[in-house]
Design a protein that fits this description.
This protein is mostly helical. The chain has 18 helices and three strands. The protein is flat, with a radius of gyration of 27 Å.
């Protein structure tokens, strides 16, 4: 038997979908645009049609659809044993589409949602970090949960009374949180709390600036060497990319940006098609704190990106340069995907350094530049460091120069 043509399948679902019939083809087109395979599109349309019949049996229009109705529908499907893990996501896309066309009621505003006080308090801090400080989503993901945990432990689900906070609340929380974590995580906790407590005081929510109650974390910034791999290992990592596949071309372009320009993972995630200036041979990099820098695009890096755009990037509506290999076709959600690409590339090359994140290639570029005679100022310019203090750690890599500064060891083996 021949498979049923998509047009006949959609026509049949329109007849069955009740009040949802006008939206079946639009939903199918949206799924195709996001890169879903034919079989997956059919499965999702079936779920949508079932939702339409469920609304029809309850004499409900499409306009009555919201998150609560979808939750009720999923309960009914679950009783019949017909709920897959993906169905909630599918119906979320349906609701998003209906709202975008005005067919369903708009989402409730954040301020109108029934949230616990802790949610409301942390949301305000997140808005401050994002809108006023211009910090990245990754920073919010790191800072906001720390504040949430402190407030939850201190106030539970009750009202938040910032003036009831005391220095011992802050120090006790830090002691509990840092008992089993390393220096890096401990520093993140104290940095987040200092920023939050200072913001509370400036807003007038606390009479005393409790940021002073946050203790310092012992640590020595220059105590370790930068985590890097040798230049020939970087080249091996790049050579082992399978550039005969779409995913391989994408990963090779990403690795070239990391290895040749020293970009951070988040900067690669945020890259947009409009950031590429092919005529000038430049690329705009969206860095920390909303900063934007124009960098020259080396010929080999530009060739790798162009090859991916021509022969690897799937057709989709997103303007992000780098797109997921699987549907939905959209940009990466965060830096974790870039770090995973680096980790897989290291494994293909047979390399097993202690640190395997995307920053490994940034450090490796700096160390290679130093060994080839670049000054710390030049390295800082390439890596776009805000101050020279950040670049100083690479001086420790120049073992030859450091050996000349070390005094001779008194005595010798023959003197003992």
């Amino acid at each position: 038997m021949h498979p049923e043509p998509l047009s006949e399948f959609l026509a049949a679902q329109r007849l069955r979908a009740g009040p949802m019939k006008r939206h079946v083809e639009t939903f199918a087109s949206l799924l195709a645009e996001r890169g879903y395979a034919m079989a997956t599109r059919k499965e999702h349309v079936l779920v949508m049609a079932d939702l339409g019949r469920w609304l029809d049996r309850r004499h409900l229009p499409v306009g009555a659809l919201d998150e609560a109705r979808i939750a009720q529908f999923l309960v009914c499907r679950r009783r019949r044993g017909r709920v897959a893990r993906s169905h909630a996501t599918t119906l979320g896309v349906v609701l998003e589409m209906l709202r975008s066309t005005g067919a369903a009621r708009p989402a409730p505003r954040e301020a109108e949602k029934d949230v616990v006080p802790v949610d409301r308090a942390t949301r305000a801090f997140a808005q401050y970090l994002s809108q006023e400080r211009g910090l990245s989503k990754a920073t919010l993901v790191n800072y906001v949960p720390i504040v949430r945990r402190l407030l939850s432990q201190r106030f539970d689900d009750g009202p938040i009374k910032f003036n009831a906070l005391r220095a011992e609340d802050i120090t006790g929380f830090i002691v509990r949180e840092t008992r089993t974590v390393g220096p890096g995580s401990a520093k993140l906790i104290v940095t987040a709390l200092r920023g939050w407590l200072g913001w509370l005081h400036r807003r007038g929510d606390t009479r005393t600036n409790l940021a002073g109650a946050v203790p310092a974390v012992a640590g020595w910034r220059l105590a370790t060497l930068p985590k890097s791999i040798a230049t020939d290992q970087v080249e091996l990592l790049l050579d082992r990319c399978d550039r005969g596949t779409a995913v391989g071309r994408r990963d090779f372009a990403i690795l070239m940006l990391l290895a040749r320009l020293g970009l951070r993972a988040g900067e690669v995630v945020a890259m947009d098609l409009d950031d590429l200036d092919w005529d000038a041979g430049e690329v705009v990099v969206r860095g920390k704190g909303g900063r934007r820098d124009r960098l020259p695009l080396p010929r080999d890096v530009g060739a790798a990106v162009a090859d991916y755009l021509r022969r690897g990037r799937p057709g989709c509506s997103t303007r992000r340069i780098f797109v997921r290999a699987k549907a939905p076709r959209r940009g990466f959600a965060n830096s974790i995907a870039i770090c995973s690409i680096v980790e897989r590339a290291l494994a293909r090359a047979g390399l097993d350094p202690p640190h395997k994140g995307a920053h490994l290639l940034r450090h490796s570029l700096a160390c290679t530049m130093l060994r080839r005679g670049a000054s710390l100022a030049e390295i800082g310019d390439v890596l776009r460091h805000r101050g020279p203090d950040t670049t100083v750690i690479y001086a420790k890599v120049d073992v030859g120069a450091l050996r000349a500064l070390a005094p001779a060891w008194p005595g010798s083996a023959g003197d003992t």
